[in-house]
Amino acid sequence: MKSSPLYLFLKKPWVAGFLTFIILLFVSQYMAYQKYLINENEQKKEIDNHVNLIKEKLQSLVMFSYSATKSLAYIVERSGVPADFDTIAIELLGRNKYFNVLELVDENGFITHVYPSIDNQVVGYNILENTLAGKGAYTPIKKKDFFIDGPVNLKQGGVGIVSRQPIFIDKKFSGFSAVVTKLSDFFNDLNITASHTQRFIYQLSRLNPETGREEFFLEHDMASFKPFAVNIEMFEGKWKLYVVSTKQKFNTGIWFAIYGFTIAIGGSWIVYFFFGQSERLEKFYNAKLVEQETQLRLIYKTTESKIKKSESNLNKAQKVAKLGSWELDLKKNELSWSKEMYRIFEKDPKKFEASQAAFYDIVHPEDKDMVFKIFTDAVKNNKSYQIIYRLDIDKERIKYVEEQCETSYDENQVPEKAFGTVQDITDRKKIETVLKNSELMYRSLTSYAPVVIFNIDKSGKCTYLNEEWIRYSGMTYAESMGLGWQNALHPLDKDRVLSEWQEAFLTNSEFKSEFRIQDKKGEIRNLSAKATKLLDANNEMVGHIGIASDITDRIKNEKELLVYKNNLEELVNQRTEELNDSKEALLNLLEDLNEQSIELEKEKIKAQSADLMKSSFLATMSHELRTPMNSIIGFTSILLKGFAGPLNEEQAKQIGMVKKSGQHLLGLINDILDISKIEAGELKVSSYPFNFGVSLQKTIDFLLPQALKKGLIIEYERYKTDVTLTSDERRVEQVLLNLISNAIKFSYDGVIRVKVDVKDNMLTTQVIDQGIGISKANLNKLFVPFIQLEGGLSRSHEGSGLGLAISKNLMDKLGGTIQVKSELGKGSTFTIALPIN
Q1: How far apart are CA 718 and CA 647, in angstroms?
Q2: What is the spatial distance between Cα 388 and Cα 400, in angstroms, rounded to a whole number?
Q3: How do strand 172-181 and strand 229-232 relate by DSSP bridges?
Q4: With 60 as the cut, is the pLDDT of residue 609 above it?
Q5: Residue 50: helix, strand or coil by DSSP?
Q6: Is 837 helix (H, G, I), strand (E, B) or coil?
Q7: Within 10 Å of residue 461's Cβ, how many Cβ atoms?
Q8: What is the mean pLDDT of residues 64-72?
Q9: All domains of the chain in start order, with CATH
Q10: Of 633, 621, 630, 628, whose CA–CA distance to 671 is shortest?
């Protein structure tokens, strides 16, 4: 073999050197090329790592802004605008140093709250009317979800983004919360290195969906760096991130090529030197790999620490809001809970294993099927949901929770995961129940008031009106809400009344006015209205509460008196002219005329004085007594309910005595006014069809607490079918109220029976009691005004003696009759009969 020609040829120096040169040159250049690729890949990997790090920071910044706006929106949705807005804003802005401003915007687009306020004098600014800001503001309203708008040139300088979260209260848009993030500071901080040199050029852009143009956040011209753009996810729209190295590193692979060529020349002469080269290169590669691995581990640990910190902050926020979160892997059927979920469900994370079956075991049995069906339908139909259901905690306590859920799907529309939140709303449910009961009681009390009672908010919109307004105006409750009540104002009085109302609001003073209203039939009424400020728990004005009473009769009497005065003056003038026609008669009757003039003037003064006294009496009684008494009764009721603050036992007892005395005095005033109108022939009744059974039941329900307090029972024997009576419902109820309340007043035990029958087109109602009764001698005195019976009816009973007199006159007006049968000590039977038509 050693003597073969090939071996001898290869053994030649120049052949060995040439072959060595060729082999070393090939190997060295190949390795130089690989080194070149490694350096290129390292530089690209460095940029990629930098891009990923910035992407993570940007996405983390967006998530922080999402958390901040969501938290503020949630607080407003559940509790209204917080009084400590600045404190909450400081906490939310402190979550990220690039947060610049926190804002609250109302449903009309006006900025109502901003922090910090220095250099941010934008309260009252309407962003929906602004061409640029309005586009980004309408998007979250349409989407009903979180939205990022940018790039935005900030008033404080620089460029940033505005994160907005819409606020919906009772499924109605009520504004949104917003966080302004200064991205220019974010990118400036990225450019600060140990050597204070700018190693990279950064740029963030967003594709405008309307114009299709790419809008940049910074002033760098990136036209030549399009290949360096990296798409990133930022909730909405197409975003691109540019990271371009300002200094290209010299690729050491070129030196490797030079060194390889040199080594190939030297190695062709010194072959043995080459054998150690591969081992050194391998060590070099291994050292580089170890260094890269160390850097990657450092990046991983840093990222992991930030994620854990974010999770800790999220857990704290969930605990404060009593809001837990869960995630269900639909393919693996694995359920995971946040820490707050275990607190809400009162389970130990170490002992309780979260699963769908375990979850449904805690759901209240009556709600279990509903929750399962809604979740199944939502997953099947690719819909999110929001429901409220109950939890049965240890079979002893009930909790109310509100759950929201969304489902993610793969490219084949197969459900992958379901994400949801669960919030403990037990306290909110209790508050809602208390408020609902209070509102029902308030409406029940005001419904029976003989005057109009109304509530107006700060914007001048009506939020409540009782039934008396509906009867006066002819408008429905819905038509009267908001600014609809203004349509009932008489055209000649409308501008004046609205001006007076506006002045009361602007000056923060009491509203007081007299005006006319006109119903749909054209009938005009005169009202006297008075409203006072309504304050909340913080002593801030939230609107006005007021009453309005009918003064049509008073105005009519004043006009009639004016006509009488004018007629009297005309009669005097006519008589004077007749006397002037005859000089002789004037001389003969001069003395008589003087006497008659004196007498006539006296009679005129008497007539005027009588009418003025009558009008003054009616006006004073209606305006100065009845209206204040209604206010006293209403406000004592509010005090007794504890709306203005808790009362001790003695205070409640004394205010209760004030309320009872006020009700008694108000009844007496109303009776006196009614009997005065009856005697003057001014009492008017109207006729319209109504359900008599409903009216009677309403009267019995109103008096039932009074009967139960005395240990009495009221039995209502209904007629076979409901009866539609055509008469004056209010006056009929007044008679029934008087008869049943008298039966309660003069009975100490037993049963009060109310019987209703229809015969010969007449509706007969009997009120039968087992009270003290009335003697035959006193029966004729029953219907005489201001008379209280002696003997059987003791003076110890309250009353003015007007109730039965008014009832008899009302029955005469309505075409009916009232009769009484009674025996002393055995009770009484009062019977009223009314024509059905």
Answers
A1: 42
A2: 7
A3: unpaired
A4: no
A5: helix
A6: coil
A7: 14
A8: 83
A9: 13-193+250-317 (3.30.450.20), 322-424 (3.30.450.20), 435-550 (3.30.450.20), 555-675 (no CATH), 685-835 (3.30.565.10)
A10: 621
The answer to whether 93 and 115 are in contact (CB under 8 A) is yes
Pick from 806, 778, 805, 780: nearest CA to 792: 778
The one-letter code for the residue type at 798 is: E
Instruction: State CA 385 to chain mean position distance.
Output: 20
String of DSSP letters for 414-465: -EEEEEEEEEE-HHHHHHHHHHHHHHHHHHHHHHT-SSEEEEEETTS-EEEE
Position 820 confidence tier, pLDDT thresholds 50, 70, 90: very high
| 96, 61 Cβ separation under 8 angstroms | yes
The whole-chain average pLDDT of the chain stands at 76
Q: Which residues contact 489 (CB under 8 A, 6 or more apart)?
A: 497, 498, 515, 516, 517, 518
The whole-angstrom separation of Cα 388 and Cα 399 is: 10
**C-beta of residue 732 within 8 angstroms of C-beta of residue 696:** no
Cβ neighbourhood burial of 428 (10 Å; 0-12, 13-18, 19+): middle
Element (H, E) at 713: strand 713-717
d(CA 497, CA 492): 10
Distance CA 744, CA 763 (A): 23
**Taking a C-beta distance cutoff of 8 angstroms, is the pair 156, 99 a contact?**
no
For 181-201, the pLDDT digits (tens) are: 887 777 777 664 444 456 677
**Both structure tokens of 405:** 């859920």
The Cβ of residue 196 has, within 10 Å, a number of other Cβ atoms equal to: 7
pLDDT in tens, 265-305: 666 655 443 433 444 455 666 777 777 777 777 776 766 66
What is the CB neighbour count within 10 angstroms for residue 88? 18
Length of the chain in terms of residues written: 837
Amino acid 706 reads Q
In 3-state terms the chain splits into helix, strand, coil percentages (rounded to 5) of 50, 25, 25
Per-position DSSP letters for 733-785, written without gaps between them: HHHHHHHHHHHHHT-SSSEEEEEEEEETTEEEEEEE--SS---GGGGGGTTST
Residue 85: strand, helix, or coil? helix
Token code pair at residue 614: 């009558």
The pLDDT value given to residue 834:
93
Question: For 225-292, where are the E strands, in sequence order?
Answer: 229-232, 239-245
pLDDT (mean) for 404-431: 86
Between CA 427 and CA 436, with CA 431 as vertex, the angle to 5 degrees is: 145
Q: Does the pLDDT at position 307 exceed 80?
A: no
Q: Which residues pair with 45 in a beta bridge?
A: none
> Can you tell me which residue has the tokens 């059927």?
333
Instruction: Work out the pLDDT band at 93, boundaries 50, 70, 90.
Output: confident
Residue 80 confidence (pLDDT) above 50: yes
- Distance, C-alpha 720 to centroid of its chain: 46
- The pTM (predicted TM-score) of the whole model is 0.30
Distance of CA 67 to CAs 126, 179, 318, 400, Å? 25, 10, 11, 24
Cα–Cα distance, 449 to 468 (Å, whole number): 8
| Nearest residue to 799 (alpha-carbon basis) of 823, 815, 782 | 782
CA dihedral 781, 787, 788, 792 (to 10 degrees): -20
Torsion of CA 377, 380, 382, 386, to 10 degrees: 20
User: 653-657, 685-689, 734-738 — which is least confidently predicted?
Assistant: 653-657
* Contact present, 426 and 390 (Cβ < 8 Å): no
pLDDT tens column, 781-807: 777 765 665 544 444 555 556 778 888
The lowest-confidence range among 186-190, 425-429, 607-611 is 607-611
Alpha carbon distance 686, 684 (integer Å): 7
